[in-house]
Amino acid sequence: MITGASGGIGLELARLFASDRIDVVLVARSAGKLEEVANELRSSHGIEATVIAMDLAIPSAPQELFDATQQRGLQIEYLINNAGFGVRDSFVNTSLKDILEMIQLNVTALTHLTRLYVGGMVALKRGKILNVASTAAYQPGPNMNVYYATKAYVLSFSEALSHELHGSGVTVTALCPGPTWTGFQQRAGAKNMQLMKSKMMRVMDAHTVARQGYEAMIKGKRVVITGAMNRIIAKAAMIGPRNIATSIAGAMNQNKQS
Questions:
Q1: Is 147 a catalytic residue?
Q2: Three-state SS across 196-251?
């Protein structure tokens, strides 16, 4: 099951599963887009593709999604928690609605879905969970502070759960992409930010990020940071002075001057 499957990294992950002849459950808000994806996967790979249109920013949605898969007799062996969004603005200028929905989708829904499905995986002694975090998890991020904080949660949660499940047959992988060309930038208002325009950063494409995450999940790796430069920057943020990493992140999250 892949959340946020209608585009970007989620869509590319769906294609990777389908190419390996693994049936998929596609979840996102737009039924129309999901049906297009499902039809593509069915015709290209001959798999079963189930569409469940749902807004996971609604608190009741994770339980409703779980109930829907149970009612259809679907056994989820791979859970991909990919749905999420960010907003680029100062905290005081970001609407309370956006802040709470960001936490609900990026943190609460991810945790809720993991808890609902992991028990069945442990009982069967097999299963894989891929949680999409970000290199944003490695330092505070002024001008996108709530988003960075949610991704820090995803990384910490995933690493701890991976440790707890060691030997159970179930693995947990945190995928930490750096800047990636997806629909995220438009929703976040981030198309012109320094991070996306910086010559130091190499913005990756969604397929490459998805491929690295997929391969790491199959191998049962605990964390994968996509791209050599992203790995260097993330490690530097961990060992360097916290205030410097914060200042750099804040500068990168501002608009690039023309």
A1: yes
A2: HHCCCCCCEEHHHHHHHHHHHHHHCCCEEECCHHHHHHHHHHHHCCHHHHHHHHHH
Catalytic residue, from 78, 117, 138, 147: name it.
147
Domain annotation for the chain: domains and CATH numbers:
2-252 (3.40.50.720)
First to last CA, the chain: 42
Q: Distance (Å, rounded) from C-alpha 70 to C-alpha 63?
A: 10
Burial of 38 (0-12, 13-18, 19+ CB in 10 A): buried
**Mean pLDDT of successive 10-residue stretches along the chain, which has 258 residues:** 97 98 98 98 98 98 98 98 96 97 98 98 98 95 95 98 98 96 58 52 90 98 94 80 68 63
239 φψ region: left (φ > 0), alpha (ψ -120 to 50), beta (else):
alpha
Taking the model in full, what pTM does it have?
A: 0.88
Number of H helices, E strands in the chain: 11, 9
Rg of the chain on CA atoms, in Å: 18
Rounded Cα distance, 193 and 203, in Å: 12
